[in-house]
Write a structure and sequence with these properties.
The complex is a heterodimer of chains A (about 130) and B (about 220). With about 130 residues, chain A is an alpha/beta fold. Chain A has helices at about 15-25, 40-45, 65-75, 90-95, 110-129; strands at about 5-10, 30-35, 50-55, 80-85, 100-105. Helices cover about 50% and strands about 20% of the residues of chain A. Chain A has a five-stranded parallel sheet with strand order 2-1-3-4-5, with helices on both faces. Chain B has about 220 residues and is α+β, with helices and mostly antiparallel strands. Helices cover about 55% and strands about 15% of the residues of chain B. In chain B, the strands form two sheets. Chain B has a five-stranded mixed sheet with strand order 2-4-5-7-6. The radius of gyration of chain B is 21 Å and the shape is elongated. Classes of the chains: A alpha/beta (about 130), B alpha+beta (about 220).
């Protein structure tokens, strides 16, 4: 597995956070695309299907949980990691039911997120083989 | 009847404080997440040997981003601290604009979640009022919350203040389409709001276009 093969879509309305996190993931040899809300994310995945999506929950407009539901309809094999500052145990349970791969709370360590992304990519590869 | 009113009021106030705290902690967590990623990026650059003189522009940008987030967090902490201390005393002489500024900062996140913007249009030379500042914030919050809940996304709510001969006026003006009916405007919670404002010696009116007008007597009237 080459890291450069992993296409990651970051979805978060906090511009400074998303740009900085994207830069750090790119420095770790991942391919990163950014979307700042749910609508942008859904339009992006129709253009190019990512392997892993890192998705915020509380965003203006579409809520992350609704975005997750739509993602799973459009590209069910894409793995989704929720990264939120506001998630409850109930949210985690719901995200798992909807097919979410992981649930992380902000602020999280880059290593934790990186490992989760790699694990999610492996899961996607195993499903599509 | 009075006991039922007090009980209903306490429940609604607890809900109000809970909402404010939830929004506050969410916002602070976001600031901390940005600070953590920015500091992490600096660390990455140093470890990769990329934080040399030629990258000083980028390094300064990262440092400024950290400072900006700390400043935003500090401002929000200041608002929350003032909000909490308004409950220390029942009645006080205070500036309505300041109390609304603080409330707007603490509820903006909820409005933004629905892509609703909150705009302030305050009368600059507003005279002080002698009233209960935390109850006033609760009343204004309730009116705002009802509009946020029922307005369609991409709408706007203006908080306006003004003054006439005998009173200070606070007008909450929604601009946009309502996706639901009359909502809480005729419910028990609205009756509680009416009663609170009457106890403060003022008046609350639902106007055309679902505007809310709150009038409080001037200190010297």
């Amino acid at each position: 597995m080459k890291r450069e093969d992993i296409k990651v879509l970051l979805v978060d309305d906090e511009v400074a956070f998303t740009r900085t996190l994207a830069q750090r993931l790119i420095m770790r040899d991942l391919r990163v695309i950014i979307a700042y809300d749910g609508e942008q994310a859904l339009s992006q995945i129709k253009k190019e299907e990512p392997d892993v999506i890192v998705l915020d929950m509380n965003m203006p407009g579409m809520h992350g949980m609704d975005v997750l539901r739509e993602i799973k309809k459009v590209c069910p094999d894409t793995q989704v990691i929720i990264l939120t500052g506001h998630g409850t145990d109930k949210d985690e349970e719901e995200a798992t039911k909807l097919g979410g791969f992981g649930f992380l709370k902000k602020p999280t360590d880059i290593e934790t997120l990186e490992h989760k992304i790699v694990a999610a990519f492996k899961e996607k590869t195993a499903r599509t083989m | 009847m009075e006991h039922k009113f007090e009980e209903g009021l306490r429940l609604l106030q607890l809900h109000f404080i809970g909402k404010i705290l939830a929004g506050f902690t969410h916002e602070i967590k976001n600031y901390l997440a940005i600070i953590k990623e920015s500091a992490g990026l600096m660390e990455d650059l140093i470890k990769l040997g990329k934080a040399s003189e030629s990258d000083s522009g980028q390094n300064l940008e990262i440092i400024h981003s950290i400072e900006e987030q700390i400043e935003k967090a500090n401002t929000l902490f200041r608002y929350l601290n003032r909000f909490a201390h308004r409950m220390d005393i029942q009645f006080a002489t205070f500036n309505v604009n300041e109390s609304l500024e603080e409330l707007a900062a603490l509820v903006t996140r909820f409005a933004n979640q629905k892509k609703i913007s909150i705009e302030k249009d305050f009368h600059e030379a507003i005279p002080p009022v002698y009233s209960n500042p935390s109850l006033l914030q609760f009343v204004v919050y309730s009116a705002l919350e009802e509009k946020i809940r029922n307005l369609d996304k991409n709408s706007k709510i203006a908080i306006q203040t003004g003054v006439d001969e005998n009173s200070v006026r606070i007008r909450i003006v929604p601009e946009g389409n309502f996706v639901q009916g009359e909502g809480d405007t005729t419910s028990i919670s609205y009756k509680i709001l009416e009663k609170i404002v009457m106890q403060l010696g003022g008046n609350i009116l639902q106007e055309s276009g679902r505007e809310t007008l709150i009038m409080l007597p001037l200190t010297n009237s």
